[in-house]
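Example: FAD/NAD(P)-binding domain-containing protein.
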Amino acid sequence: MLGPNISRLQRCTEALHSVPFLGPTMNDAFDTCSAVFHEVSSQGLAPTLYQIASHLAGERKQHQGLPLKGQEVIKTAQAVDIGAEEYKNIVIIGGSIFGIATAMKVRYSLPLPKNYRLIIIEKHSHMHYMFAFPRASVIPGFEKELFAPYDNLFKSAKEGRVIQACATSITPTHVELDRSVDGFGTIVPYEYLLYGAGAKHPRPGCLSDENTKEEGVTVLKEYQARIGRSDKVLVVGGGAVGLELAAEIKEHYPEKEVTLVHSRARYLQTYKFGLHRRAYSILKNLGVRQILGDRVIIPPGGFKDDGKEIVVKTRAGLSITTDLQILCTGMIPNSALLSTLSPASINPENKYVLVKPSLQIADPRFPNVFAGGDVVDLPDIKTGISAFAHAAVAIENVVKLVEGREKGLKDDEIKLVERSPVLPQIYLYFGLHRGVAQLSYHGYLYTAGTWLVRKHFSYNVLASRAWDWCGTPLSAETVDI
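Written out as C-alpha cells, the predicted fold is:
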C-alpha cells in the first residue's frame, strides 16, 4: 500500500505545482499549503478541488522556462462563426489580469450558464506581463516573452473570444468599437458587462499606448539603450516599479550613479514597515542614493530626452546631477469609457469607479454592470492579487444573477457574494539575486527577504505563467507568436 500512496501524493504535488495560484508557483510543502489555503479562502473548497482534479486529469502543465525545441505546442484555436443571436454575451472591458482571471475562473471552476459566453475587448494584441518590465527595461534578451498571445485563452468561440479593438462608448445594451470586427461589426451587444480597464502608469512600468507586441518590444529596447548610454540615472518615485528599476540598473551597471527620490518618508506606505526596511537596506547595499520625504521639481513640459547632463532641484533644495530621468509616479484610472454609460459611478475626486460590495457599479440603473481591478475605488492594494480576487467575485455574481432571474426571482431576492478585503501581498525583485516580499499565512501578514524570494527567481520574473494563463505554454516555438 505504501507505493501507491506515495505515487498518488507525487501526482497530487505535481498537479498543485501546475495550478495557476495567485502568486508564483510554490516549490515546497509550506508554500504549497499556503497557496491552497489562499485558494480555498478566495474561491471555496469545491472549486479548488475541481481545479486540482482538472490538472490531475491532464490539463495544461505550467512551464517555468522555454521547453526544448520540438516540445508539443498548442495550435491556435480556430474561430467559429456562431451568430450573435444564438449566444448571450458577458463582455469584459480589458484583457489584463482582471479579464484573464475571469476567464480562468470560468475555465477551472465556474462554468457559465447555457448559451452564455465571455467576450473580452482589449486594444492590445497580447497580454502585457508588466511585472517584468522594470528588468526588461535594463537587461536585453527576453522582451518577447513578456507579451503572451490571447489565441488560446478560450478553447472555442462558443466559450469566448478576445476582440482586439478599442471600445469607444458603452450604452445600456452594447459596446461600440473603433473598428469593425468579424461577427460583430462595430457593435458588441451584452447582457452583462465587467469593467476592468485598469489604470495607466508612466513608461516603462506600463506600456498602455503600445498595442502590438512589436511596439512593446521596441520601447523596452529603447529604454535598454537609453539606460546603457547614461551615466547618472534619476528615478522619480519609490513605488514598486521605481524600487525594482533602481535596483535592476544598479545591479546590472554598478559603475553608474543611480538616485531614487520618493515623496514619502518610507517606501510602500500601505505595507508593513518591515518591507520598507528590507527594501531600503538592499538598495543601500547596492549603492543607490536614496532621498526620502522630498519631491523632484519637474520643469514645465517635462524632462528632455536628449542625454545631456542637467542639475535637477528638489523641493527641499537638494541638487541632483543627472543625464537620464525616469518617472515612476502616479496612476491614472482608465474610467473615462465607463463614464459614457454611468457618470454617477465615477468618483469625481479621483476618477476611480465606485462599486458596491458585490462589485456592481454604484449606479442602481445598471445592476448588470460590474467593475474590478486597478480601476475601482477600493482600499485593496492595486496588484494582480486584488484583480484575481475581484474577478472571482464579479463573475460569480453574474452567474447568480443569470440563474436567479431564470428562476423568476427579482434582483433583490438574489443573494450575491460580497467582496472581502484583499490582504496586501507583494513580491519585489531587486535585481537577479535579491528580493523582498509581504505574504499572508492564515490571515497573518509577514515580510520576508531574499532567503524566501530567491526560490521564485527566474530571468523573466516568472513570465511563463502569463502564457499558461492565456492557454499557450511558453516555448521556443511560441515565443514569436
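The first strand starts at residue 88 and ends at 93.
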